[in-house]
Every structure is written in C-alpha cells, then in structure tokens.
Amino acid sequence: MCPEREGQLKQWIMDCEPLLSDLHTLRRRGLPECYIAAGYIRGYVWDRLHGYAFRSRHDDIDVIYFDPYHCEEERDLALEAQFISETGNQRWSVKNQARMHLRNGAAPYRSTLDAMSRWPETATAIGVRLTAEDELELCAPHGLDDLMGMVVRRSPLFADRQYYLERVRAKKWLQHWPLLTWIKD
Asked: Are 64 and 93 in contact (CB under 8 A)?
C-alpha cells in the first residue's frame, strides 16, 4: 500500500467526526477482524476527492467481521439491533464474512481480508478500524490506488462480470461522482 495514500486516507477519516464516532462504537463491541467498510468508506473518499461537503450518502454503516464459530445470521441481526439501540442510527448493517461464502457459492473464506478480496470492486474492498491505541488500521486487499484514483474496476477474484456491470449501473456512481473512471472489463 502506498504510504502517502494510506496517510491521506487516515487523515481524512480522523477529520470526519461522524465516521470516527462510528469507529469508536464498533471498537467497543470487540468483534474479531472487524472493520467499517464498503460504501461508507468509498463514498466518503469519493466525496472528498470531488470536493463535496460531507454528505451522509451511504445507505449502510457496513460492519464486517470474521468469526467462524458464530456464523448464524441471527447473530448479525442481534448485533445490528445493539448498534441501533446504542446510537439511534438505523443504518447499521453487520455481516460475518465467515458465512458469506455460502451466499456467494464459494469455498469458505479464511479471514476478513480473504473475503474482501472477492468483493465486486477494488475500490469497495476497503475497511477501517480503530485500534486500542486510537490508531487507524486499514484492510485493503487490492490497495488504495483505485479508491484514491477514482477508478471503478472489477476485483480480480470476482468472476461475474455481468453482475459487476449491472451493479455499477444500478448504483449510479458515475452520476453521483462524475470524475470516476469506469473500467468495464
């Protein structure tokens, strides 16, 4: 990972009080291999790169973690309810990546990093967490170049090109962020 881009991303996150507050909430829960990820991070970064003021555009506060010993969907729903109760924010979405291979018809994932490496887009496969020392830690299996370079690209381990194309169109990212470059292969 490029140290300059990593430093810039961490600084932007430290500058965003709502995101930092959500990271503190997440840390208190103590889930294994746990990050706030996906659209929350991607959208915030692309807003910054487009010069937009902070917009709470994300549909979800995407929480991912990896716990192969507690794979029940009911646990994720209970965790969501706890986050909602604690914060009053209805947008918490919790997914144990140890069970997501079932939904995706894949072999079991080995970790949060392994699961994220198989997400549809490289710029979406970014997670952030706050350590016990109040430092930010990133999980970015494909690096930060596409996120920070405003490139929409299919992840190399995501085989379903048609799904990827339909997803990008449906999300209307190029309308929200017109400076993006979309690589369709």
From this structure: no
C-alpha to C-alpha distance for 180 and 183, rounded to whole angstroms:
10
- Per-residue burial over 161-184, b if 16 or more Cβ lie within 10 Å, else e, is eeebeebbeebebeeebeebeeee
Model pTM? 0.93
Question: In 3D, which of 18, 27, 84 has the Cα closest to residue 56?
Answer: 18
| 29-56 b/e (C-beta count within 10 Å ≥ 16 → b) | eebebbbbbbbbbbbbbbbbbeeeeeee
The pLDDT value given to residue 102: 77
| E-assigned strand segments in the chain | 35-37, 61-65, 92-96, 127-130, 136-139, 151-152, 181-182
Residue 51's pLDDT is: 92
Residue 114: which region, alpha, beta or left (left: phi > 0; alpha: psi -120 to 50)? alpha
Please answer whether residues 149 and 182 qualify as being in contact, where contact means their C-beta atoms are separated by less than 8 angstroms.
no
Predicted pLDDT at 58? 62
| Residue 134: exposure state from Cβ atoms within 10 A (0-12, 13-18, ≥19) | exposed
Half-sphere exposure of residue 177, counting CA atoms within 13 Å on the CB side? 27
| Sign, CA torsion 146/54/78/31 | positive
Sorted by sequence, the CB contacts under 8 Å of residue 134 that are 6+ apart come out as none
Q: What is the mean pLDDT of the chain?
A: 93
